[in-house]
Structure formats: structure tokens, C-alpha cells
Amino acid sequence: MDRSDRLTNSRQMSDRELQAWVERISLEYFGKPFLHRAVFNARLRACGGRYALATHHIDISRKHYEMYGPEETEKIIKHELCHYHLHLEGKGYRHQDRDFQELLHQVGGTRYCRALPERRTHPYRYKLICRKCGQEYYRKRRVDTGRYVCGKCRGKLQIIQLDSPIKS
Q: What pTM did the predictor assign?
């Protein structure tokens, strides 16, 4: 097992190791250097990675790496590198562009990343009742009933704090 395999098989990869990994993938699959910054971003949940047009930096979801491992993360890196290289070359870098789709297929990147398990949701703590039509709304945060009205009939709302929160 060489050094690059050990880096990609490690469960706790640092940003420096990720940078080296992205640079290696860029040279190996695209034949071009990656000259910007690649980092893990723990806040990314809906997507596996993100390419920033303005700075050319790449963010990779730490949660996707921890959940699905290096194989899935490598496909995400290839996807983001397709955006990166095509954008710098002035070609079609968006998902719907033929240049992007063809390059993604050539390098073996993934079009969509695997979804993370559902995140925890907070329970509803408040119930709003319209005084005019009786429509009920559930909210997780307190609402200023002086500023908002019923969306159905525009009537005044009454707020009730729930004794036992309801799962959303």
C-alpha cells in the first residue's frame, strides 16, 4: 500500500491531505494541475462538494467522506474538478452543459452524490390557530402574532405553547 492509498483509506483525513489528494486526482485524470485550495466543509449536507466560481476553491463534505468513504469522495472530487477545469478553460462547466457531462463520464465522476441520512429535526413547540376560520399551523419557533395573519383568510392568529412538543 503506497502513501496515497493510506491517505485515502484514513477515516480522519486533514485538509492538507485532502489538498494533496485533489492535486493527485487532477493530474492523474485530467492531466492538469489543481492550483487552488481544497478543504473539508462540515456544513455541507445537501451536496457532496462545492466549486466556488469566484475563488476557484473546492469544498468537500466531511460528512459524506465519513459516511461513505474514499471511493464515493473520489467521485465527488472528480465532479468538482470537472467544474473547475472547464470553468478555467472557458467551456461549459454547468451541469446541463454537454462539455461537463462528457468530461464527467470520461473521468468516472458521479453526477449525483449519495444522500446523507435524514437529519434530526426539532419538534414543534407552538400551535397557531386562526380565530376566524380555525386553520391550525405548527411552528418550532415562537411567532409574533401581531405581525402575521392567517394565510388562508387573513384572520388574527392565537398562539398556544404545546405542553409536549410534537415531532415534525
A: 0.68
Lowest mean pLDDT across 14-18, 59-63, 163-167: 163-167
At 78, give phi and psi (nearest 5°).
-60, -40
Q: Which residues are catalytic?
A: 80
C-alpha cell at 18: 485532502
pLDDT digits (tens, 9 = 90+) for 85-104: 999 999 999 999 999 999 99
User: What whole-number distance in Å separates Cα of residue 101 and Cα of residue 93?
Assistant: 9
Neighbour tally for 73: CB within 10 Å: 25
Phi, psi angles (nearest 5°) of residue 125: -115, -15
d(CA 79, CA 53): 14
Query: If DSSP codes are grouped into helix, strand and coil, which group holds residue 64?
Result: helix
